[in-house]
Specification:
The chain is an alpha/beta fold. The protein is 46% helix and 15% strand.
Length: 365
């Protein structure tokens, strides 16, 4: 790979992770980073990730080979107008936003179609900020590229290779195809999860019995309802048409199953779960999607003093880090008394083997 100068506008979780990973793939990659927060700039410089840090977007970005826009969707578009008069004819701008059509439209209006390859790394974390960035955050995660029709194929291939070298899995899509797909697998599910949580909240009793019993499956399928309201407000406004279209289809499917349940049609319910189970079970577990996977085990323990401590000590003695641990009170839909959550699949599998060797009975989640 040739020597490259990469510019980063924003050094949060995603921008910081891409920068850290890029710095590792080639010793002669130079990185200049703009960030409003001084803390992130200092951390990036102390980590030897950023060679130059700044709180101003100026001529120092003019000789960049690639510039990564890593701020919220609407801010990314505003930064385009600043960069337009700075970049060289050979510079490629890319972004990390989860919606692509709006920024492609802005690129076309600004006459920057020869300079743009849209990007969407499908990875993330509940933690934010550069301090939580990791060079391996994008490993085995799909990284969508949406090049314009006018950008050089040679530069598309080069960015594709950069994404591959940082450990992600690059896929090239049309921006419209991308937005329709993520509306179905991410945007609409987030809205559904939020509605389910509010359904329980609005129909709970005064003593909050629903909230007390909510566990297991309900908590798992509504976990993403805790996402950032600001971020999802922006996403829904920028991918409105696709979200509305798919919500309409989803509402129609709910109406159909409501009718089947009301008419006591067991075959319809059976067919619904047969079809969904077959398709869900065909999903690959090897790659990260836009909704972060939870790596957890449920473990049977006897209700006695020190039982949880014994499990925690076994894992700690073997240097296995626990992300979260807690008692499962409602086990109607899942086995096990103790639910243990881990940071990654390898750690979960190692912990599972270890606890099994100690005689504990485990249940997959």
């Amino acid at each position: 790979m040739r020597n490259l100068k990469l510019g980063f506008i924003g050094l949060g979780l995603i921008g910081g992770s891409i920068a850290k990973a890029a710095k590792q793939i080639h010793e002669n990659i130079t990185i200049i980073a703009y960030n409003r927060s001084e803390k992130s700039r200092i951390l990036a410089q102390n980590d030897h990730v950023a060679d130059i840090v700044t709180d101003t977007i100026d001529e120092r970005f003019s000789d960049c080979d690639y510039i990564f826009l890593c701020t919220p969707v609407e801010q990314n578009i505003r930064y385009l107008t600043v960069l337009k008069d700075l970049i060289l004819p050979t510079c490629i701008i890319t972004d990390v936003g989860s919606v692509k059509q709006n920024i492609h439209l802005a690129i076309e209006q600004l006459g920057l179609t020869k300079h743009f390859i849209g990007g969407h790394p499908m990875a993330g974390s509940e933690k934010t900020g550069y301090e939580n960035a990791s060079s391996h955050l994008l490993e085995n995660a799909y990284y969508i590229l949406t090049p314009t029709a006018n950008v050089s194929r040679e530069r598309v291939n080069e960015l594709y290779e950069i994404i591959r070298l940082i450990g992600a899995i690059p896929i090239i899509l049309d921006d419209q195809e991308h937005d329709f797909a993520v509306a179905a697998i991410s945007h609409v599910p987030h809205l559904i999860a939020a509605c389910l949580v509010n359904l329980v909240k609005d129909n709970d009793s005064e003593d909050e019995i629903m909230k007390l019993l909510a566990a297991g499956g309900f908590k798992d399928i509504t976990r993403i309802a805790s996402s950032s309201p600001d971020m999802w407000q922006q996403i829904c406004s920028t991918n409105k048409d696709n979200i509305v279209l798919l919500l309409d289809k989803y509402i129609h499917s709910l109406q159909q199953i409501m009718y089947s349940v009301n008419e006591n049609s067991p075959n319809a319910v059976y067919d619904l779960f047969t079809k969904s189970r077959a398709y869900r079970d065909s999903f690959s577990e090897n790659n990260h999607g836009p909704i972060q996977k939870i790596y957890s085990l449920s473990c049977d323990i006897i209700d006695e003093s020190g039982a949880i401590r014994n499990v925690a000590n076994i894992l700690a003695d073997n240097k296995i880090s626990i992300k979260n641990i807690g008692i499962v009170n409602n086990r109607e839909y899942e086995g096990g008394v103790l639910k243990i959550q881990f940071h990654d699949k390898n750690t979960m599998e190692l912990a599972g083997k270890l606890l099994s060797d100690y005689g504990y009975v485990l249940y997959p989640n």
